Amino acid sequence: MAILGCMAAPRSPLSRLFTVLLAGVLAGLVLAVAALPGNLLLGLTARSALGSYAALPASLKTPATPQRSYLYANDGKTLITTFYDVNRTDVPLSEIAPVMRQAIVAAEDRRFYDHGGADLRGLARALVANVKGGGTEQGGSTLTMQYVRNVLKTDPTRTAEERAAATDPTVGRKIQEIRYASALDKSLGKDEILDRYLNIAYFGAGAYGIAAASQRYFGKPPAQLTLAESALLAGLVQSPDAYSPIGGDKDQALARRSYVLDSMVATNAITAAQAAKAKAEPLALHPTAQPNGCTAVSQGHDDWGYFCDYLRRWWLTQPAFGATVAEREQALRSGGYTVVTSLDPKIQATAQQQAAKVYGYDNKRALPIAAVQPGTGRVLAMAVNRHYSLADNPNGKANYPNTVNPLISGGASVDGYQAGSTFKLFTMLAALESGRTLSTGFDAPAKLPTRYAAEGPGSCDGHWCPVNANPDWMDGYRMMWDGFGRSVNTYFVWLAEQVGQDKVVEMAQRLGITFRADSDATFAKDNAENWGSFTLGVAATTPLDLANAYATVAAEGTYCTPVPVVSVTGADGAKVPVGQPSCKRVLDADVARAATDAARCPVGQQSAFGQCNGGTATGVNDILDGRPVAGKTGSSEQNSTETFVGFTPQVAVAGIAANPDDPADSVGSAVQTKVIDAVARVIATAVKGQPEKAFVAPSHELAGDPHRPVERPTVPNRQQDPTTDDPRSPLQRWLDRRG
C-alpha cells in the first residue's frame, strides 16, 4: 500500500516531522485500535466521519477530470486524431477486466470492501511502523483517500494554490482527506468509488486512468487486460515514474508485478499457481502513443491534418464549448468529447491521390481540392499535395512539401486564388433572378467595349475591352446555355452590365464567397457597381467556398453553412447541440434549376431544352459514365490559375491549380485538363454506390424561347483549348482581360 503520497523512498525530514505530528494527533487512536473489535471500530469511523456528502466540494461529487477528445471520420470508427492536455479517457467499470479491479485492490487497499473510506486500523498500523523507522515508509491511504487527493489536485475549477494544497504534508489536510473519504464512502457504492479511482489514477508514461494506461502500455482496451498485464499496471500507481517500464526501471516494474500477484493470492483473488504462471510471463509491451493534435494524425494520413485544422478553427467559433476562444480550446483538449466528423475517408483518399497526381509534393504549385455535400454543407474532403506538418522544408522552400497553412479553406495568411470563369455562374444567377431567361441572346463580339474606365493596351478609347480567348469558337450569337458552355467572356460581361455588377457581387456573397483579400473586400463594399471584371473571376476565393457555392445550386437554392462534423458527444454521453446543418433558401428553386441546366453544357451533357452545343470540359461526361453532372471551368489572367468545379445532386467538388506562394507564377493552360480529370474522379468516388439522381428541369418560363435557331458547330463536341487559336500573346490576353 502507498504512504500518504505513495512514494516508497527514504523519508525526508519534512516527511518524518509530518508523520510524528500526525502520530501524535492519533496517538490515542493507535492504542484504542488494538483493543476495539472490528465492528465497533467501523461504527466509530462512520459516526466520526467528520463530514457529510452535502458539504463535499462539487468536484468530489461530480469530478471534472480532464479527458482526451477523439476525432473520427464520418464512419464513427476511423480515428483521425485526439486532443488532450492530459491523456485520459473515462470508461465504466463494466469495461474494465475484473482481474484489473482485483489487482488494484490487492496492490493498494486490501481492506477496501471492509472499511468506511478511511481505514483507521491500517492508518494506525502504518503510523506506528513509520515512527519506529526502518528505512521505508508504509502507506495508510485507502483507494478512497487517494481518489480524493487526485481529484482535488487536478480539479480545473480550483486555483493553482488550492490544487497544490491537496498534497500539503499537514495534519489538517490529512484529517480533511479522511473526512471527505468517509463522506464519499457513505454516499457512493464501493464499485462507483473503484470506478472513479481507476479512471483518475496516474500510471506513468503520460497515461491517466486505466483506459489510457491499457492503450499506452499494451495497445488494447482495459476489458482485454490479462492477469499479468493487470498486475503490472496496478503496481505502477505507487511510483509511476520510477516503475514505468517505458522510460523507467523494468526490473522494478517486474518486482512490483510480483508483489501485486502475491497480494492477489493473499486476498484470494487468484491461486498461487495462477500467480506463479503470471510471474513467469515475460514483459510483453506494445507501447502506443496517442496522437495529440492535427500535426499528429494517424500514420500515413498527414493529409487529414488540413481537415483537422479546419475543424479546430470551426470549434473555436462555437459558443457551446465556452464563452471565449481560450475556453473552447481548453474544452477540446480536456472535455472528453467524441467528435464524428464529416470527413469521408474514401473521397479524401481519391482527392489526395488526384492532387498529388497533378503536382507532386515537392512541386511549388499545388492543387487544393474540396468536396461538399449539397443540402447539408458537410465538408467531405480537403486535400492538397502537401504534408500537414511543422517539419522544416528543404533548401528554404516556402510552404512545400510541409505546411500547416489553410490552403484549401483559406484564413490566416491565405486569401485564396482567382477562379476565373467559374464566377460566371453568379452573373447567370443574378440575370435569371432579375427576370431574364436562359434564352437571353447577344451577338457576342471578339472584343467588347464597356462603360468601365481603363487605360493601357487592353483598353478601347479609355474603356475596358474584354476579349474572347478563342474567337472562332466563342464569338457569335449566344444564349446562357452556350455562352456558359463555351465560356464566352464578352457574353457574360455584357450580361453583367445589363444586370448590374453590384447584383453579381451580392449574388456571390449570398452563396458564401468570402472576400479575404483586403482589396477585394474594399471593392465589394465601396465600388461593386464598377467591378466590371468580377464576372471573369478576378476576386480571390478558395476551393471550399467555391464548392459550397456550387453546392447551393445543386441543392436547388438552399445554402448551407459549411460544417465539419456530424455529431459531438460529451464525456457524459449527451449530444452537444452543434454541427447540425444550418441551411436557408437564398435562391428560388427554379432559378437554381435553370442555372444547373446551363451548367450541363460545359461538361459534355445536354440541357433539358437541347441547347448545349459545346463545352470546355466535355470529358467529365465520360468519367461519370453519363451520370447527371454539371460544372464550370475557369482560367484566370495569364493562366495563373486553372479551376474546375463539378456537381451532382449529391456532391460538389472544386479544385484550383495555383502557386500559393507566388500568384505571378502562371500554372499554364496545359494543366486545365488534369484539373478537370482530378475533380471529376473525386466526384465519381463520391457518388459510387449511390442511386443516380437526375436534375430537375427548369420551367419553360425561365427557359424562354430562343430568338433564333442555334447554329450547331461543325466540329465534334469535344473539349476545347480556349487558347489554341488565339493569335494574341499571353501578355496581350492578360492585359485585355485585366483592363
TrEMBL record:
SUPFAM superfamilies hit by this protein: beta-lactamase/transpeptidase-like (SSF56601), Lysozyme-like (SSF53955)
A Pfam family annotated for this UniProt entry: Transpeptidase
Recorded superkingdom: Bacteria
GO molecular-function terms, A-Z: penicillin binding; peptidoglycan glycosyltransferase activity; serine-type D-Ala-D-Ala carboxypeptidase activity
UniProt keyword annotations, A-Z: Carboxypeptidase, Cell shape, Cell wall biogenesis/degradation, Glycosyltransferase, Hydrolase, Multifunctional enzyme, Peptidoglycan synthesis, Protease, Transferase
Basic and acidic residues composition bias: residue spans: 702-711
Limits of the Glycosyl transferase family domain: 79-264
Keyword Lipid biosynthesis: no
GO CC, alphabetical: outer membrane-bounded periplasmic space
Coiled-coil zones: none
InterPro entries documented for this protein: Beta-lactam/transpept-like, Glyco_trans_51, Glycosyltr_51/Transpeptidase, Lysozyme-like_dom_sf, PBP_transglycosylase, PCN-bd_Tpept
Region of interest (Disordered), ranges: 695-739
Catalysis performed (reactions): [GlcNAc-(1->4)-Mur2Ac(oyl-L-Ala-gamma-D-Glu-L-Lys-D-Ala-D-Ala)](n)-di-trans,octa-cis-undecaprenyl diphosphate + beta-D-GlcNAc-(1->4)-Mur2Ac(oyl-L-Ala-gamma-D-Glu-L-Lys-D-Ala-D-Ala)-di-trans,octa-cis-undecaprenyl diphosphate = [GlcNAc-(1->4)-Mur2Ac(oyl-L-Ala-gamma-D-Glu-L-Lys-D-Ala-D-Ala)](n+1)-di-trans,octa-cis-undecaprenyl diphosphate + di-trans,octa-cis-undecaprenyl diphosphate + H(+); Preferential cleavage: (Ac)2-L-Lys-D-Ala-|-D-Ala. Also transpeptidation of peptidyl-alanyl moieties that are N-acyl substituents of D-alanine
Domain Penicillin-binding protein transpeptidase residue range list: 370-676
GO BP terms in the entry: cell wall organization; peptidoglycan biosynthetic process; proteolysis; regulation of cell shape
UniProt family annotation: In the C-terminal section; belongs to the transpeptidase family.
Protein name stated in the entry: Glycosyl transferase
Native organism: Micromonospora inaquosa
